[in-house]
Amino acid sequence: MTKMDKRSSSVSRRNFLKVGGALVVSVGMPVALDTMLGINAALAQGVRPPLAPDQLSSYIAVNKDGSVSAYFGKMDMGQGLFVSIGQMVAEELDVAFKRVKVIMGDTGTSVNQGGASGSTGIQLGGKQMRMAAAEARRVLVDMAAEKLGAPADQLAVVDGVVSLKGNAAKKVSYGELIGGRYFNVPLDWNKQTGNALYAPGKAQPKKPSEYKIVGQPIKREDIAPKVYAQEDFNTDVKVTGMIHGRMIRPEIAGSVPVKIDESSIKGIKGARVVHENGFLGVVADREWDAIKAAQQLKVEWSQVTPPFFDNTQLYDHIRKAPVRKRDDGKPVGDVASAFKTATRVIEAEYEWPFQSHACMGPACALVEIKNGQVTVWTGSQKPHFVANGVAETIGVPVATVRAIWVPGPGSYGRNDADDAAMDAAVLAKATGKPVRVQYMRDQGTGWDPKGPASIHRARAALDAAGNVIAYEFVSKGFSRVDVDTNGSKPAATLAGQLRGVPLGYVDGFGVPAESYVFENKLTAWETVAPLLDRGSPLRGAHLRDPVGPQIHFASESFMDEVAAAVGADPVEFRLKYLKDPRDIAVVKAAAEKAGWQTRPSPRKDNPSTGTVSGRGIAYSQRGGTTVAIVAEVDVDRISGKIWARKFTVAHDCGQIINPDGLKHTIEGNIVQGTSRTLWEEVTFNAKGVTSVDWATYPILDITEAPQSIECVLINRPELAPTGAGEPSIRAVAAAIANAIFDATGVRIRRVPFSPDRVKAAFS
Amino acid sequence: MPKYTLNVNGKARTLDADADMPLLYALRNDFGLNNPHFGCGLAQCGACTVHIDGQAIRSCVTAVSDVGKGKVVTLAGLGTPQKPHPVQKAYVEEQVPQCGYCINGWIMTAAAFLNENKKPNEAQIKDALSGLKCRCGTHMSILRAVKRAAEMA
Ligand code: FES
Ligand code: FES
User: Fold this and answer.
1) What's the domain count of chain A?
2) Which DSSP string corresponds to A620-689?
3) Residue B81 belongs to some domain of the structure
4) What is the CA B64 to chain-centroid distance, rounded?
5) Cβ(A27)–Cβ(A183) under 8 Å?
6) Is A79 exposed, middle or buried (0-12, 13-18, 19+ CB in 10 A)?
7) Is the CB of A410 within 6 Å of ligand 2?
8) pLDDT value at residue A8
9) Which of B47, B76, B105 is the last residue before a domain boundary?
10) In the structure, which protein residues have their CB atom closer than 6 angstroms to any atom of ligand 1?
11) Is the CB of B65 inside a 6 Å radius of any atom of ligand 2?
């Protein structure tokens, strides 16, 4: 029995809530002692009030021992977000950081704050937790004022103890005031759920000048338990009576089973087929048996025309495909007229392939249906939406579904985790037993929702003096939301689609996020139809910084091309046109820290053979954060191999909550961004995806890791914090491409920059 | 179904299994040792790494019938918070992981390597760890941690 096993099997929803904390106490108006006793007696059942976005108790509870539980409706995908949330809560409550426990991602204990989404963990989720904690402090101080018979403004709080200023003997602790009971304080909820949820109280949060805990480099406490094998992942959760499931996907995408020979697995203990339309899975008592059954099952598939083509035709397809939707954003001036007056026009086109989440392990989920209650253990970064999806997929009321997020094998957006949860739910319902499903590697890499492929056309009009008088940038690609950002609808998951619901068909792409000022400017996007309308291994979805890397690879490579065309230094060129002072600051900071030498690219002093080096800069904004990256690369002209040797990153996300967590987050972004730039490409043929494991979908090896990643963290305590989970991955590809150009004079416009492609570019 | 008795983390453990069942499933499902992880089942990522007689091997492609009398050690048997292996200690100090799913492979591989190579240089460390995967991209802190562990050892 595992640790997780005990917790999950013995604790019902109701008594789980009980163990979490405390009873309910009504506060708000000053409360007399006898009223409190009355309330205590009235609410002695000890159940936490129902989760509601407009209740303080949904976010903060003070336990008997004075420790604080912070119930967070987002979760940490490995960047230490929960540490930052704990810091923000501890800061506002005036308790020691160690007293705060952040409890994340369980629909039974937290409201829907959107899950992990768009780098908004601190920006939106933290903002809410900060306001809730500030309100909790206000309420607690009011209670203390009543108890101590002193006005609230005469009280001070140190580590959860409220005392009279000038007479520290007159004191009462948070634990004594409310420990073991729950707040009953309404908040001013904006009636939104998900990312947009906001429900402040009456309290104002602290001024940054008062911070003692926010801004400190506090370390993560979840690392030691993982390192000492004391903590389970979602792949490790087991419950009594659990059986194992495996899914079977068609060789030709779109075909469905027409004949299933169950006798082909009859020798395998407990093996059973679950089949409904295109949905085909097997279960068995033991995991290895389920794997064997999935391999051995004889299936005849329907004859369908292979829906795809060879991936070498991908960009031609996008180029020629009809535009399904176009969005012109906010054009400035009159681009078409300005181009007519141009002395010179610079043009280029860039290409970015489908990419896979390729998580460290294929997704896993466990679903138990017992006494009318459904429990889902999932690695999905949006468990609240998973609960909705499971309810709809197996036809039960959502109130009976509890989804518990347990850290899974990595998540960088809408990966395969939501699909696994729905598959497990269908199998559990069909078999009447708790079913754990984990995909096999080829399914994790081959069948996960993909970051969409795209082409990007850029044009700049120059006047006689070499000034940019007009700029046009148009992306054309597959939608980033063929399937939704979460699995709340059957249309968004494989289980839903394979059982008969087509893709949701939403169009979404994006435009460059920058502050270049050109008199005439148009940035637009166009989407093309998905290649298969359901059950497709090439369905477009959010992959870390959805469409950010593709767009900014193109737009920031192009800025460099224009700079080179007019013989300008790449940094000076950008500074000439940038408007936002924070953008200007990051570009300057990165250049200065990297020891940037002002000169146009390419450098003139490199030999034409052997290994040559160069440097490149790229910059971008994202959701209020701005980042500039200088890459220094070595290019082996013979082998075509690129070593992205050094990065210097200037990062401004407003107020920094935890510089240590931020630095690790940036490093991860840079390395993953380098991997996607140098190696990653989904390959496919007419039948389906052919990049299905680490050999066919290689990522950056440790031998190719940069020598150093230097970070300049620009802290702006006076500004609200914005995101860091994704912004620094955006400009990585362009910084590398620009450095390759600097080193060699060769411009590479297609990702990935694999050795073959780089070599070909040189010849 | 044949019966096997394996020596795992110093204890004799018995199970019934198909001869070709990978050791990984015995460790995880029959013995409740949850690190190693399933990452690929193809010997491509290292997530399932354990030691057999001090050598780092990939348990996803090692059949239970091939383990024989080999002494199997998993991450749980490598060290404890009280008596950590240097690589574990360095991993915590350097705050290496993001999702953490890969750490079993890196720690077990680095531990076996450092056992045989007392004072490795950076290139030797990278070579020894080549082929292991970390999708979150914690390469920089992995290298810092293994270098730190090499200095401790
Ligand atoms: S799971 Fe064994 S090497 Fe990947
Ligand atoms: S920390 Fe997530 S795969 Fe390495």
Assistant:
1) 2
2) EEETTEEEEEEEEEEEETTT--EEEEEEEEEEE-SS-S-HHHHHHHHHHHHHHHHHHHHT----B-SSSB
3) no
4) 17
5) yes
6) buried
7) yes
8) 35
9) B76
10) B 38-41, 43-48, 58, 60
11) no
Degrees, nearest 5: CA angle A349-A351-A357? 155
How far, in Å, CA of A114 to CA of A121, rounded? Answer: 9
Question: Do B41 and B93 sit in the same domain of this protein?
Answer: no
| Cα A443 versus chain centre, distance | 21
**B32 assigned to some structural domain:** yes
Q: What is the mean pLDDT of residues A137-146?
A: 92
| Predicted interface score ipTM higher than 0.95 | yes
Could you read off the pLDDT of A562-579 as tens digits, one per residue? 999 999 999 999 999 999
Cα A371 to Cα A366: distance, rounded to the nearest angstrom:
17
Could you tell me the CATH number of the domain that includes residue A639?
3.30.365.10
pLDDT higher than 90, residue A23:
no
What is the rounded radius of gyration, in angstroms, for the C-alpha atoms of chain B?
15
Report the atom number in ligand 2 closest to the C-alpha of B106: 4
Contact between chains at A233 and B84 (C-beta distance less than 8 A): no
Beta bridge partners of A681: none
pLDDT for the residue A37: 39
Spatial CB neighbours of A141, under 8 Å, sequence gap ≥ 6:
A152, A155, A157, A162
pLDDT at A47: 61
What residues of chain B lie within 8 A of the CB of A410, using their CB?
A: 98-99, 101, 135-136
- Report the chain A residue with the minimal C-alpha distance to residue B84: A228
Q: Band the pLDDT of A61: cuts 50, 70, 90.
A: very high
| Ligand 2 neighbour B97 (Cβ under 6 A) | yes
Q: At which of B27, B58, B76 does a domain end?
A: B76
- Best mutation site among B44, B50, B129, B132 for ligand 1 pocket (most ligand atoms within 8 Å of CB): B44
> Can you give the pLDDT at residue A504?
75
Helices B139-152 and B103-116, axial angle in degrees (round to 10): 30
Q: With respect to residue A231, please indicate whether it lies within any of the assigned structural domains.
A: no
8 A C-beta contact, residue A183 and residue A136: yes
Strand order in the sheet with A60-62: A60-62, A68-72, A100-104
* Residues of chain B where predicted confidence (pLDDT) is lower than 70: none
Residue B45 CA, ligand 1 centroid: distance in Å: 5
**Chain B neighbors of A359, CB-CB under 8 A:** 101, 135
State the DSSP code for B100. -
Mean pLDDT of A602-611: 91
Q: Of all atoms in ligand 1, which is nearest to the CA of residue B37? A: 1
Last residue of one domain, picked from the residues A216, A239, A256 = A216
Q: Both tokens of residue B29?
A: 């499902």
Residues B67 and B91 in one domain: no
Around A556, how many Cα atoms within 13 Å sit in the side-chain half-sphere?
Answer: 34
The pLDDT tens digits of the residues spanning B103-137 come to: 999 999 999 999 999 999 999 999 999 999 999 99
**Inter-chain touch A233–B126, beta carbons under 8 Å:** no
Is B99's CB within 8 Å of A441's CB? no
Q: Which domain holds residue A679?
A: 548-762
| A156 SS3 class | strand
pLDDT exceeding 90 applies to what percent of chain A? Answer: 81
| Domain limits for position B66 | 3-76
Q: What are phi and psi of A162, to 5 degrees?
A: -95, 125
**Cis peptide bond upstream of A205, omega within 30:** no
Please write the tens of the pLDDT for every residue from A579-597.
999 999 999 999 999 999 9
Determine the average pLDDT of the residues in A6-25: 35
**Confidence category of residue A12, pLDDT binned at 50, 70, 90:** very low
Per-residue pLDDT for A540 more than 90? Answer: yes
Can you tell me the mean pLDDT for A171-196? Answer: 91
CATH number of the structural domain spanning residue B91: 1.10.150.120
Distance separating alpha carbons of residues A529 and A207, to the nearest angstrom: 50
